[in-house]
Write a structure and sequence with these properties.
The structure is a homodimer of 255-residue chains. Helix content of chain A is 30%, strand content 33%. With 255 residues, the first copy, chain A, is α+β, with helices and mostly antiparallel strands. Chain A folds into 2 domains: 3-78, Arc Repressor Mutant, subunit A, CATH 1.10.10.10; 88-238, 3-Layer(aba) Sandwich (Chorismate lyase), CATH 3.40.1410.10. The first copy, chain A, is elongated. The structure holds a DNA duplex (21 and 21 nucleotides).
Chain lengths: 255, 255
Amino acid sequence: MNKLTSIYDRSRVPLYIQVASVMRQRIDTGHWLEGDKISTLEELEKEFAVARVTIRQAIELLREEGLLNAQQGRGTFVSGKPKHNRWLNLANDFDVMVSSIKDNVLKRVHIEETASSPELSEGEGQLAEDGYVFLRSVQYNSGEPFSVVNLHLARSIFDKGGKQFMHAAALPKIVEMADVTISHAHQTLTIGVASPETADLLKIGLGEPTADCRLVLVDDKDVAIYVADIHYHKNCFALRTDLLERSGPRRGAGK
Amino acid sequence: MNKLTSIYDRSRVPLYIQVASVMRQRIDTGHWLEGDKISTLEELEKEFAVARVTIRQAIELLREEGLLNAQQGRGTFVSGKPKHNRWLNLANDFDVMVSSIKDNVLKRVHIEETASSPELSEGEGQLAEDGYVFLRSVQYNSGEPFSVVNLHLARSIFDKGGKQFMHAAALPKIVEMADVTISHAHQTLTIGVASPETADLLKIGLGEPTADCRLVLVDDKDVAIYVADIHYHKNCFALRTDLLERSGPRRGAGK
DNA sequence: CTCAATTTGTTCGTATGTATG
DNA sequence: ACATACATACGAACAAATTGA
């Protein structure tokens, strides 16, 4: 009967969690402001077309997160905003990217010297003949993990760098190599889901969304020397650009 | 006891759906190839540390999606790949963006002539003095909705465009206006969750992830004349760039 | 052809979580 | 707070189909 019913059905997440996520979003976007009294249970029941207990479960969830504060007889109030760490500014310029990751705190969690080759799609260059080394690392910001990097590095590059790759970001090292020319840096950004490994390292739930960034460096012989699959925690991730930065102000066409 | 147990606990999504999403990913990434026989129920039980019935529920889910095909006595086989509509190539260049949306099929679903002003963050310009008009539209590709655009358009611009804005994308119209200068086009990309309205229009579940793109056009007087919050269906979304496109090949520093 | 091993399919009982009114 | 209904998850046992020795 209700329009919402069909929406609820499309998600298999428990109803009270769906309701909670809508409420959380309202607080986050400022639709409900801090200190405000939110609608009464009765109003919320009607709006979401669910039972009272379900609303209460949702409120309880947000209370545990410190976002809501219910007071018997008075009402329910907004007591805080969800925390975001949108400090990560993904680069859309190669030099900015290289310099920004140079000082990253990272922890190598896995190295496979004889790894299988990465899957390359159309336009991402050719596979290196001498195979790849696989490196996995986690990047931290103030103690919290915010990204997992799965890197296939061409063996030739790995050997050239020696032990440098063990404890620092690979990209700046490669850029500094005198006899390596990078002709393309293909970046693809999508939304993915956390695998068991990623979920474990990022401390998130299995199958939760992540911002996935694939970065493939291709040398002057069209060989993919660096193939990284990076999974970012969704709350840390933001990509900011001024689309007119390079071309300058746009005066009306006035034709 | 198990390492996975704690990961399961972090997500409130039913266990069999979590397991299914891991399996779906394995098929998608080619870890499990089409035609292959996947591990037996017994092996999967152990790997995921769940009951047999739970594995079967996950398999049933993927069977309905056409990804798996279980045969009694033989095993379970991969019968297809998840479909992606990653055809959407979000622009990182203003001209490309304008030209790419010019021919979009869209449906205006909501217009508010006297709307509240949008929330602007630091650096996104000043609010227009004459207020805003709010427009909501849905964009379709071969009948399927792939994005919802919530647009606050400065009233001055809206009045200038007349009825043009009713049935076509606003951006190209604005660019063509002779007396309008766009000095900045701030784009911010994040991962968000679907509100009831967005979920309804995109035909996804409440609280499911979306790719959120905010585009703010600022004129030469630092006024935000166009403030769009765009929610993309996560499966349609991809942002591809060559980070070296503008600066050209990078020869080793060789200092 | 039969037998045994393998593998998926089904069912039962129990416990807990979700949602309604 | 209560009674009710249904979904989720477990473990274990048993049934049915396939395969190869």
